[in-house]
Amino acid sequence: YPFGSHTQTRKNNPSPKTPPPRGGGVAMDPSSAGAGGNSLPSVGPDGQKRRVCYFYDSEVGNYYYGQGHPMKPHRIRMTHSLLAQYGLLDQMQVLRPNPARDRDLCRFHADDYISFLRSVTPETQQDQIRALKRFNVGEDCPVFDGLYSFCQTYAGASVGGAVKLNHGLDIAINWSGGLHHAKKCEASGFCYVNDIVLAILELLKHHQV
């Protein structure tokens, strides 16, 4: 999900001179990113150069909502491959997101809900029927292997994008994000953690309404 200051809109260590704030992401080796990753400015239709960052975790395409489910994270990997083949990774800073921590997610979500997401697995869900109903986890929002890691990854990417915007970049891209249906205490519409709200809260540290 791309977002930025314009409306059209896992391993190398970060530079020791200017380490990014928590959530900012880790610069990827160009070979692991597919290509590029040189953080070159992109030129917009108005002729102005814009600094773009792109968050991607190579594991994201391995998550699987289940047979017949319309939400298919492997499409994110396909999109990344297209970016690499078209040479677009040369035009942006490619970063592996830092996984969001419990306390990061609880800036918006309830503690008990996040605790549930962290503990539930396909093998244990039948022992947590009441919690599944309480938190609206089921057909639309199923329990799958790596569910919590998936949430940490996409939320960490969006928060990391907000951190980058707060520190001078113009556009941040996270194709795995935008899961805005998730509520404070429950999942909704294929979404478990509302990364958009979390990113907004990060932006508000520097941009007051």
Automatic annotation (TrEMBL):
GO biological process: epigenetic regulation of gene expression
UniProt GO molecular function: histone deacetylase activity
Protein name: Histone deacetylase domain-containing protein
Stored SUPFAM superfamilies: Arginase/deacetylase (SSF52768)
Lineage, opening ranks: Eukaryota, Viridiplantae, Streptophyta, Embryophyta, Tracheophyta
One of the record's GO cellular component terms: nucleus
PANTHER family according to UniProt: HISTONE DEACETYLASE 2, HISTONE DEACETYLASE HDAC1-RELATED
Listed InterPro entries: HDAC_I/II, His_deacetylse_dom, His_deacetylse_dom_sf, Ureohydrolase_dom_sf
Domain Histone deacetylase: 69-208
Annotated region described as Disordered, given as residue ranges: 1-45
A Pfam family the protein falls into: Hist_deacetyl
Composition skew (Polar residues), residue ranges: 1-15
